[in-house]
Amino acid sequence: MPVTGIGGFFFRSDDPAPLSAWYQTHLGITAGYSGWKQSAGTTIFAPFPKASDYFPADKSFMLNLRVDDIDALIASLTAAGIAVTTNPEWDTPETGRFARLYDPEGNAIELWQPPED
């Protein structure tokens, strides 16, 4: 297979430095060209119909982040004053658990804890 994974995620920002710092502080993502080392696991690549209501219609993407302990991360984000939405209907034994939040520029982020193997 010629492609082995996603090498980067690039998007426009009104103010890249503070947004990068927000991702580092709250999600542990090191932004920039030094790279962000990730653990191995499934990555979902899925185009959605333009009419989808799965994420905001005014955004062309939603970042989905794979996490090990969604409850701990939700607690940390909530303690930092970041609104996190959960919905029991999103969670299934087959797909795992989900939560949603927005970065300071309104970009949708979905947290995903995959199901146990």
Describe, in plain words, how this protein is organized in 3D:
The chain is an alpha+beta fold and 117 residues long. The protein has helices at residues 16-27, 70-79; strands at 63-66, 97-102, 108-113. It has a 3-stranded mixed β-sheet with strand order 1-3-2, with no helix packed on it. It is globular, with a radius of gyration of 15 Å.
Span from first to last CA? 24 Å
Report strand %.
Answer: 5-15%
Which structural class fits the helix and strand makeup? alpha+beta
Query: Helical percent range?
Result: 10-25%
Describe the largest sheet: 3 strands, mixed
Note the overall shape: globular
User: How many beta strands in the DSSP annotation?
Assistant: 3
What are the secondary-structure elements, in order, as H or E?
HEHEE
- Point out poorly predicted stretches: none
Neighbour order of strands in the largest sheet: 1-3-2
Radius of gyration: 15 Å
Helix count equals 2
* Average residue pLDDT: 89
